[in-house]
Amino acid sequence: MTIRAAILAAFALLPQAAFAEGFLVGRMEKVPDLTLNTGEAGFEFEPKEPIQLETGKGYRWWIKGTGEQECAFRAPGFFENVWFRKIEVNKVELKIWGIHEIEFEREGAAELFFTPIRPGEYTWECKGLADKGLTGKINVK
Fold it and tell me: Of 19, 59, 82, 135, which has the maximum CB count within 10 A?
């Protein structure tokens, strides 16, 4: 028996539950950029539609602040249910387990590289500004 045949035979004996749905290290899909603090008063965001994601897929997502208002971007339920590969800010890579919030005190951007691991409907907000309209949804299937 060749080495290749032996490896294939060994994989055939593994239970199906050992194989994950989705390819966690594959090509990252682009999520539409989320731009915060738009509009005349700085209490709007684009795009308005909920972000749509799937578990087991890798994503790249730019979150940008215009600087019109300070924004402490929070999405606690979402942040607790994704695996972060890295976050990039000003060409610096942060390889971390998780985040609490991303604060934009002036114009800036953060690029998140992650994989959702639990389905659900999650809410994001700019801390203290949700009542002014800075809140949205992230849906994970």
Answer: 82
Q: Which amino acid is at 75?
A: A
Enter the pTM of the model: 0.77
Q: Give a yes or no: residue 85 inside a domain.
A: yes
Question: Does residue 9 sit within a domain?
Answer: no
What letter does residue 105 receive in the DSSP assignment?
S
Strands 29-38 and 59-65: parallel
User: 34, 32, 5: which is closest to 125 by C-alpha?
Assistant: 34
100: CATH: 2.60.40.420
Residue 21 in tokens: 């749905």
Q: What is the Cα–Cα distance from 22 to 109, expressed in whole angstroms?
A: 28
**By the 8 A CB rule, do 86 and 95 touch?**
yes
Range 16-28 average pLDDT: 56
